[in-house]
Each structure stands twice: as structure tokens, then as C-alpha cells.
């Protein structure tokens, strides 16, 4: 039963990752990034998501918290997606998304960044982890429902690792789709604006729908 339970949690992680809010978040962070950065972002998002689920599921497993309070977790997740969409649209319409091409060792490289100056930092990685944590709050109820199918019904670290691995499978796969977009579509300033504007609109629609739903 234990192996079956872990497989169930892994499968739930896969299904959970297919949620439009999660895929939207990954797209928002990964568009315009390098292969290494995209894989790092998706991994950190999955780790932050799994960690948050473990901590909050432990709390809910110990204390009796009403459904009304749990509903705020969904609102937090939706608000994060909505704000990311608004932010992307703001950056597009204020012309704060930059693109620069150069030749290095005979190969063309495209650099994309936000703001007026090109800076190399790890803010995207840390932000992806933070967003994963915040959105993990909204997934706790579903995880506990899945755990209720198991004999023990308790939350332990092995279960969360199995869940995070399921999430990571989809996130990394979706990250590969984003890499294709980065390589084949983001080759001009016009296409850059179109892709980011589309991502922003989708984020706003998904976040708004979650809040109203």
C-alpha cells in the first residue's frame, strides 16, 4: 500500500502541475531565458511548491482549520498570477523589455532583459522559488484530499518529494516548450512584445477567472 500511495501522490503532482495557473507562472518566468536558466527556474518553482505544500499540509493535518480560511489560499495563488500578468503588460506597454543580438564564437546570441540596463543576477531564480511557495498554499486542500485516500492519511517528507517529482516532470517538459518559443520566435523586438503581451493577457485572464470562480 505504501508504494501505491507514493505512486498516487506522484500522479497527483503530475495532474496538479497541469493547472493553468502553474503553467502560466512557468511561462511568465521562462520566456526569454536561456536553457540553463529555464531549467533552474522550473526546478526551483517545483521545490518551493512542494516545500510549501509540506509545511501547510502539516499544519492542516494538526489543526482543524475551516474551509473559509483555506479558500484564502486559492485567492493568494490567483492574485499572484493576476499580478504577474499585470506586471508583464506594464513592461510591454512602457517598452521596458529589451532585446539585443550579438555574435559569439560564430553563433548568434539573443539577450532579453527587463529595464533599461542589462544586468546578470539571480532574482528570477529566487522569485520563482518564492512564487512556488505562495502558490503552494492554494494546492494544500487538494493534496490533503489525495492523502485521505491513503491508509495513514498523514503527511511526511517522502510523500512531498514524490509530489514534487511529479510536478517537476511536467514543469521541465513545459519548460522545453518555452525553450522552443525562445529559440524560434523571440528573434525580433516586435515578436518579443507579442509573446510577452500574450503571456500577460493569459495571466490576467487565468488569475481573474480563478478569483471569480
Brief rundown of the structure:
The chain is mainly alpha-helical and 213 residues long.
Structural class: mainly alpha
For the secondary structure, the number of strands is 2
Radius of gyration: 19 Å
Side-by-side strand order of the widest sheet: 1-2
* Euclidean distance between termini CA atoms: 36 Å
Instruction: Give a short account of the largest sheet.
Output: 2 strands, antiparallel
State the order of secondary-structure elements, H for helix, E for strand. Answer: HHHHEEHHHH
* Poorly predicted sequence stretches spanning 5 or more consecutive residues: none
What is the averaged pLDDT score? 75
Integer count of domains: 1
Q: Helical segment tally?
A: 8
Shape from CA axes?
globular
What does this structure look like?
- This protein is mainly alpha-helical.
- It has one domain (2-212).
- Helices cover 73% and strands 8% of the residues.
- The chain is built from 8 helices and 2 strands, in the order ααααββαααα.
- The two termini are 36 Å apart.
What would the keywords be for this entry?
8 helices; 8% strand; 213 residues; mainly alpha; two-stranded antiparallel sheet
Produce the secondary structure layout.
Layout (H helix, E strand, L loop, with lengths): L1 H16 L2 H11 L4 H28 L4 H27 L3 E8 L2 E8 L8 H14 L3 H8 L9 H28 L4 H24 L1
Antiparallel strand pairs: 1-2
Amino acid at each position: 500500500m505504501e508504494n501505491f500511495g507514493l505512486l498516487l501522490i506522484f500522479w497527483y503532482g503530475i495532474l496538479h502541475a497541469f493547472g493553468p495557473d502553474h503553467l502560466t507562472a512557468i511561462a511568465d518566468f521562462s520566456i526569454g531565458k536561456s536553457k540553463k536558466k529555464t531549467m533552474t527556474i522550473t526546478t526551483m518553482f517545483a521545490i518551493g511548491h512542494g516545500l510549501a505544500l509540506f509545511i501547510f499540509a502539516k499544519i492542516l493535518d494538526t489543526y482543524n482549520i475551516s474551509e473559509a480560511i483555506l479558500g484564502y489560499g486559492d485567492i493568494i495563488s490567483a492574485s499572484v498570477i493576476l499580478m504577474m500578468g499585470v506586471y508583464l503588460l506594464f513592461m510591454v506597454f512602457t517598452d521596458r523589455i529589451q532585446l539585443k543580438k550579438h555574435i559569439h564564437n560564430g553563433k548568434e546570441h539573443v539577450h532579453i532583459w527587463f529595464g533599461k540596463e542589462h544586468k546578470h543576477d539571480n532574482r528570477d531564480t529566487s522569485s520563482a522559488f518564492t512564487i512556488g511557495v505562495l502558490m503552494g498554499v492554494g494546492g494544500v486542500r487538494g493534496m490533503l484530499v489525495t492523502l485521505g485516500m491513503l491508509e495513514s492519511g498523514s503527511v511526511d517528507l517522502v510523500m512531498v518529494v514524490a509530489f514534487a517529482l511529479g510536478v517537476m516532470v511536467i514543469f521541465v517538459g513545459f519548460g522545453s516548450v518555452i525553450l522552443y518559443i525562445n529559440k524560434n520566435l523571440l528573434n525580433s523586438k516586435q515578436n518579443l512584445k507579442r509573446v510577452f503581451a500574450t503571456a500577460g493577457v493569459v495571466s490576467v485572464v487565468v488569475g481573474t477567472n480563478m478569483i471569480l470562480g
